[in-house]
Amino acid sequence: MVSEFQSRREEEQAMKAAGRMPPGQSLTQKFPVLHYGPVPKFDPATWDLRVFGEVKREMRWTWDEFQALPTVTVTADIHCVTGWSKFDTAWEGVRFRDFIELFGLTPAARFVITHAEHGFTTNLPLEVMLEDNVLLAYKYNGAYLEPEHGFPLRLVVPQRYFWKSAKWVRKLEFSPVDKPGFWEQAGYHNEGDPWKEQRHQHRSFF
Fold it and tell me: What pTM value is reported for the model?
């Protein structure tokens, strides 16, 4: 009888052979919970999402208004900076590239700074955010996200280590300049590309 460990190892080897496993990663069947600070409480009556900065029109959505926007479902592999990868995860939400069409960007917009609960931020170049599979997601595997996984709204950016996929999103800032976020200021790599193993900043001390 094939053990659970052996089965996982075989699947992991298959993912590596298929070119889907970034260097330094290992497969998980679970969905580990990693975040800084407590899980925030959600009140649908007061929750909102705002966009500001280099936009043609600043806008705000209530929870009901945001859920009324057209959604897509994306299947993607996700990779955590701590070393685990989870494959074929299914997310539903508003495609980011479509979302920005609702308010428009100025030519100066080059970076997206995601502001989440508890003052958490993370940063990404606009060009990365415009990939087809980048979502503002509120469902996972057909059900609403669990609070510890970011409900009511989290960013999903499969091309980057998963700390860039901020949980509990509240504001999106469009900026002409880069603004390193919480983990980036704490020493994580500013880009966070799992295929380049951009886990931490490389600093020289003299």
Answer: 0.89
